[in-house]
Design goal:
D-amino Acid Aminotransferase, Chain A, domain 1, single chain, alpha+beta, 20 strands, 43% strand, 9 helices, OB fold (Dihydrolipoamide Acetyltransferase, E2P), seven-stranded antiparallel β-sheet, 338 residues
Length: 338
Amino acid sequence: MTNYAKEWKKKSNFRQISYNDFVTIPDDNGIYIAKVDGMLGLLVFENNKILFQTTTGHSIENIPAADDYKALFNKLKIKQAMIAGELVAQRSGAILSFNDTQSIVKTSYKPENGNLVFHYPVDVIEINKKKLSFIQALQFLDKHIGKIGLPHVQMPMYDIGKLDKFRKLYDKILGKQGYDGVVVRNYNGRNYKVKFVETVDLLVIGAGHEDMRAWQKKEISYLLSSFIDKNGIYRSSSKIGTGFTTAQRSKFYKFILDNQLYKSNGEYFIKPQLIVETKFFRSRITDTPAYRFKNNKYELVGRELSVTFSHPSFERIRPDKKATKFDVRLEQIPQFKY
């Protein structure tokens, strides 16, 4: 089955940008949507079958949110639909943390967990094979879901207008549990993701160092990270050494040793499979070692421009991301140009 979730994400091409950088863009009308901190889940409805698809290709079925949509589609005599949104875990009206969400969504086949999964739609791609513009999508969602919502489907807060509308929405959700920024659609022809803190998805290629004190306690000292460029070359980035709890350092230590391919100069290297979201304060474009992954080894091919970070800090593992040149692309940093 086509991965519609991944296709939608590529087409939307949200560029992450800081608050200060965004508000310096010449003022123009935009559409601002509160970004719920969940997992992208694109609803696919056809042949009377309904499921939520993730960017990793997993399908989630038979949850109450799917029943809500099915009842709505039957009422409106809709036979086919695709709706993009965020899947989150919610209890007593409160959105749970991302880690709780991913754990609950993964086990949503259990009735007690499926009942906690909510869908926050942000875009209607098509209805009955008819493509919708983003304004048409918002109108559809507002009319049929709106402020009241459905039992397991909720409309995220949004506004349309000049930058003052963006500022008000941003201030309204700043620090609010379950939200991590504002998505901006069709602003000066671009789509943006304005987060409360700047983050980037990086590929873990290894960890170290065995001579450091943490390693002697069976904990990692740092993770080795990389981007993947458009030609499939691994362009190294910063060492991620902060943001971990002691338990996380121990878990990473075990993971690295269980998955090691080889050791070089006290550092252990693993297959490109693990993605981590990393917080940072500033980024810098500079040339770094570049590698080709071949025969289970990272082979140096020279130095290429990449992005490194000031005070990179581990935020979380991203099981919904893969080691692809899209999910860990250099263009996550808007200033980067090939």
